[in-house]
Amino acid sequence: MANRGDGAKKLAAEYFRQLSEAGETEVYLPPGDVRSLRGERTSRSASPAGPAPESSAAATASPADAPRADSTMKTPDTAAAPSASTAAPSAPDIPEPEIISAKFAFSSKATTSDMFAKSAGLETCTTLEEVEARAVVCQNCELAGGRTNVVFGAGNPNARLLFVGEAPGRDEDIQGVPFVGRSGQLLNKILEAAGIERDDVYIANIIKCRPPGNRTPFTNEIEACIPYLGRQVALIDPRVICTLGLPATQTLLGIRGSMGSLRGKIYVEGNVKVIPTYHPAAALRDPKYKRPIWDDIQLIKREYEKA
Ligand code: SF4
Question: Is any ligand 1 atom within 6 A of the Cβ of residue 138?
Answer without folding.
Answer: yes
